[in-house]
Design goal:
The protein has helices at 40-47, 72-80, 97-108, 113-126, 142-155, 172-186, 199-205, 223-229, 233-242, and strands at 2-11, 14-24, 29-33, 55-60, 63-66, 82-85, 160-164, 192-195, 208-213, 216-221. By secondary structure, the protein is an alpha/beta fold. The protein is globular, with a radius of gyration of 18 Å. 42% of the residues are buried. The chain binds adenosine-5'-diphosphate. Adenosine-5'-diphosphate binds next to helix 1. Residues 2-239 form the ABC transporter domain. InterPro entries: AAA+_ATPase, ABC_ATPase_HisP-typ, ABC_transporter-like_ATP-bd, ABC_transporter-like_CS, MetN_ABC_transporter-like, P-loop_NTPase. It is found in: Cell membrane.
Amino acid sequence: MIQMANITKAFGKHEVLKGINLTVKKGEVVCILGPSGSGKTTLLRCINYLEKPNQGEVSIGDFTINCKRPSKQDIHTLRKKTAMVFQHYNLFKHKTVLENVMEGLVIVQKQSKDIARQTSIQMLEKVGLGSKLDAYPSQLSGGQQQRVGIARALALNPEVILFDEPTSALDPELVGEVLEVIQKIAKEGITMIVVTHEMGFAREVSNHVVFMDQGVIVEEGRPQDIFSDAKEERTRQFLKRIT
Ligand code: ADP
């Protein structure tokens, strides 16, 4: 479903991704774990070209983009297959909750307002915000704002949703409601890649865990194997520190 082949990325002289190979199957929930600065967010952003890799290939379904010479159309095609949930929600402050979710459907996908409204309301109901359609982001808690971000991603009906530390900006008491929503949509079989520090979530919800350090994938496997029987010392040390 998603394949990254030999992806490298440097910022100036700093090589942040050093030849990443990653395969994600359809319907899988993959959690990417690792210390701060190990390249997790950069890897996620390379999947939809928010960061341009220096080298390598990204495939989603039967569409492959070669990172050396992608056309604008290639990048557009790739982006349409993905949706992203950001750490800081990235909502439009001057638009209502409903307008935030409708925006991508009307502007990017060129849907009619009526259809876009219907889909958006359904998705907002799914994340428990059916009563907040006309609220503005500033009137919502961080957890609610992030659930709007998730509804917006779902509404796009992407082939994969990319979550970039979706709970790390939240007060601790709001983390649970957001993780519950992610868990609920995971059960629907949507392919998801989640950069997270929430080990409980990774253990319980993901099908596959990837541990990164210093720009490489050190180890990957089923959560039950990684959490109880990691093969690599670096993984064991990290998990010991964080759990
Ligand atoms: P993680 O998500 O694992 O914390 P990141 O992918 O955010 O790691 O960052 C990996 C490294 O790349 C860090 O050293 C970070 O400072 C650097 N980096 C990330 N984005 C940029 C950028 N736009 N310009 C320069 N350096 C960056």
